[in-house]
Amino acid sequence: MDAPRNDATRPLYDHLERLLFTEAEIKARLVEMGAQITAEYEDRRQLTIVTILQGGMLFMADLIREIHLPMKVDSISVSSYHGGTESSGTITFNENRLPDLKDRHVIVLDDILDTGHTLHAITNRFRDECNPLSVKSCVLLSKKVDRAEKIEADFYGFEVENEFVVGYGLDYNGEYRNLPEIGVLKPEFYTHEA
Ligand code: XMP
Fold it and tell me: Which terminus of the chain is more solvent-facing, meaning fewer CB atoms within 10 Å of its CB: N or C?
């Protein structure tokens, strides 16, 4: 396990119950995922990767450099948590604009698949309104839960238990996104919302 950095983020590590994935483990898994996606899409052109902001931004930045194909990248911003740790079940699209996905093979990236509301809403909207050639989904983390929506990611990095995780783009109330590792947040740092 990498030692936490000796900088001002150090106290944030005290908020973690335990580390789940180090920077090196994430990087190694992204190399494998990139190879899998490269192999699957190498005969197709017109690949567009759409990341879900803000959680998916680090994941996209690192994964696309492991996919050795021509591609376009885009993003979409939605809200579902409204500051807490439970999905509200209502996905709010924060902008009216949808990416231009006409005649593109699309992979939607998110940091984590939990209830499935987010991926379900976005992939359906893309299929219904954007005329893509295909739409698949890719998440770094897949939570082991009974999902509200019948959806699984076509590509995923790691499975995690039903715990609230932060780091590597994942936040609680906007914080922890810049931790290079992923860890379980101690409940005492969010139970005040209950
Ligand atoms: P759903 O429930 O729609 O969730 O599949 C996907 C979105 O919810 C957020 N999410 C989390 N964020 N730690 C986080 O920081 C978690 O453990 C967690 N679980 C879900 C995330 O924004 C994701 O896009």
Answer: C
